[in-house]
Amino acid sequence: MIPRLAHPASVEAIPAGFVEHLIEAGFRGDIETGAASRTVYSTDNSIYQVEPQAILFPRDAADLKIMACLVSDPAYRHVVIAPRGGGTGTNGQSLTHGIVVDCSRHMNRILEIDPVRRIARVEAGVVKDQLNRALKPHGLFFAPELSTSNRATIGGMISTDACGQGSCLYGKTSNHVLALRVVLTDGTDFWSRPLARGGVDEVLARDDRIGHVYRTVERITREKQARIGEVFPNLNRYMTGYDLAHVRRDDGVFDLNAILCGSEGTLALIAEAEVNLLPIPAETALINIRYNDFNAALEDARNLVALKVASVETVDEKVLGLAKGDIVWNAISRFFPEDAAGSANGINIVEVLADDGPSLDLKVSQVIAALESLENVNRLGHTIARGHDEAEAIWAMRKRAVGLLGNVDGAVRPVPFVEDTAVPPENLAAYIRQFRALLDGFGLSYGMFGHVDAGVLHVRPALDLVRPDHVPLVRQISDAVVALTRKHGGVLWGEHGKGVRSEYVPEFFGDLYPCLQEIKRAFDPENRLNPGKIASGNDTPLMKIDDVPLRGEFDRVIGDELRSHFDNAAYCNGNGACFDFNETSPMCPSYKATGDRRQSPKGRASLMREWLRLLGEKGTDPRQAAARVRRAGVLRSLPQRLLNSLNPANASDFSHEVKAAMDSCLSCKACTGQCPVKVSVPAFRSKFLEVYHGRYLRPLKDPLVASIEELLPWFARVRPLYNLVASTRLGHMATRLFGLTALPPMPALSLAREARRMGVAVARAEDLGRLTPEERRSIVVFVVDAFTAHFDPDVALAAIRLARKLGFEPLLAGPHVNGKALHVHGYLARFEASAQRTARGLQEIADLGIPLVGLDPSMTLAFRSEYRTLPGTPLKAVVSLPQEWLASILPAAAIKPVSSTKTFRLIAHCTEKTNAAASMGAWTSIFRRLGVDLSLAETGCCGMAGTFGHETRNRGLSEQLYALSWKPVIDGQLESDVVMATGYSCRSQVKTIDRLAVPHPLQILETLVS
Fold it and tell me: Which among 77, 240, 407, 766 could disulfide-bond with 161, CB atoms 3.0 to 4.6 Å apart, if both were Cys?
């Protein structure tokens, strides 16, 4: 049995009375001081781990002012704060032992869009893609591109002066900032705008903090102008933060925002921003060039840049290989075909933009002609992607490159700490050759990709920082790369900010560094804002890369075996793909609905890591604890679990905080399919629940929900009584006592009875084995799950009729327990026992060469995930999704196209979309074979997710998720529309909330096939 786990208090507890005084002062935002929140906010996308004292979530600029004023109180002179946006920084920019200020939860409003002046005003927590979605109807966009655009906040982009692909054309974030509303540590609320000479004189005369700031910056940039020109490199990716070189513009304007952009929260808190907007390019194309050598791609990039294209991006063979196993590959594989010599060892992606089609064609032909005139024996060929949709699909792969580098087997994985160096583009190839030689000298593997047009290449050496012998390599490699960038006229931090790497700032700035310190003191006299980063205004030392705790130090006690056993939880690299703001994206519905980082895959993985670490410190192996739970059994362990649950001393058990985060997981597996590192929350959640409930009692609903497949046949025998419970107010009151709600009624139609009437037999391996191979080729076995069989038998009957129309003899798999509900709720011993029985039966049929076809995506895909890892007898056979089977047989089927005036739309199950992405196109091809156009609706999770939405505690969240993306599609359908859904739970949710019966696509296909 696991012990009670006490999470240690943060290094320095939050001062007594601080939270109370904050509330008394009128702070309206959220305040979190619990161990779970501190754990989740102790990491970002870097190799470091620093636990904060608390996390504040302000609601508006007024909250920022209240907070700043309180921090300036002498009673709290030791309190420091660090702002945080999307939390995807690769260098610990937002990590702090103080208080984190997160504007992403509430300060995420788009305040104004002026399409005439091409200006938008937004709060700091607005996500870049969120803004661009709002701008699209106006034909405008916010230009700075970056790989984390679906979760990067505008405030975070400003704080790191972010940019990425296309920076040579569009510049950095600072090039698009018109004005910043900032709050200083004394509570000053100020709009920083570029000022002409008269405006500067007026501000210089002010007798307050703002006047002092302007006087300091004006004097330094005037007196040190020549030296600034010498120190700051002439690069597209010049030094971010405290940018003295761009304060005094050529047009005579004085722009303090050059100092603020890239300052990483060390000078002020950003509340709002005014940004300029650009027209969306009318036409776009990507020329995808393949090479047999990555160095050849780098060398050729110089030729491509000279062609004045919009951008040139490079990806090496490691990233390309990882992309082939990712969810994005199906949409782009045709653009990267296999060559006679094998796979490409590097690619260049060349972007071409134009105002109209003919101009685009001309530009593309000019680039192709130039390529053909510049012979390169290492160039294997090229493809062209035209239009925004095709281009976006390829850019999606490029954006996922950072996360994909973490998706490798084993403990040694590419990690960020020298991954954003910038050198003059003409020096890039020589620089990278020496960089590679450096890493080769250490015997390390690595992945590379980047913006070769800007001279930036992302390089991640593969290390396991749990290993003591790998830890010193961070210092050795960093020092060597600093020297290498200086040698080639570049900088260490071309894109991802300084953060923990600030120790190199004095060396880079030289005799200008005291000027940076003076600016820091002018803005933040007491060094309260993100101290230790970029410049120190007092005797507080700058952070050093080997003085900040590494994640690996915390993971060392866990050990490699446990790290690998718990489904990549410990390998979550903080990339934050699970923070996707888009309501129509299936990724992590619980985070979308709550905005709570604890209820995201990254948050749950962080909590799991900490839980494993605390167990390790106690000398407890959770695998052994799980084994003891199984041996003890439910009844024998009941008294002890009851005592543990009632014992007040256990109230502070950290396991409860982990459990709370796991409870809101829908087990939809979107993280499994969409996380670049393949963190699988449902998998490690079930293992956690098994151990947790070996110590504490389960809620009453758990045994009922987990046993639902075994109970449904009994409910069917007393169907009127069951429906009385499911359909009456008194019945609802009774089920709520057990924590259940929204139970679907059971129809009078019986699948078993109708199948017998139709002459459909139950498939038995011994009977099928007596048939000839020719006879077996005409058979298909439908593996009907218990929910479809008992609540929606029409779907199974439609599948039977459709199969017969297509010339097949349909059979039904015998009664079986899929066990998904058992697995979801952590009844792993029971799951394994029932799943092994089911697997044996299905395997016997599959071994005869007979196709197995499931009907519900979630239940069917369990055969490909949970069943593949079964101890003893894992299922090797493939149980196909309906569209996979139909796509394989329709080319040979004699069917006639139909004519229809209806519009057909399909809403796919989120597990299906993310874990069987390649099958989505099969639905459109199947309907096209019948002469019908089918569109796939853009939706996220319906909120039901198997039994999740039937649990009382989850019902509010379930309905909230339905409203996010499903309800607009359902409400927007016309009488001529046919909207279909593949998931049983999804159709049940629509029926429960909107009282509409949405058909399965098999039901529609059966009516279309004559």
Answer: 240
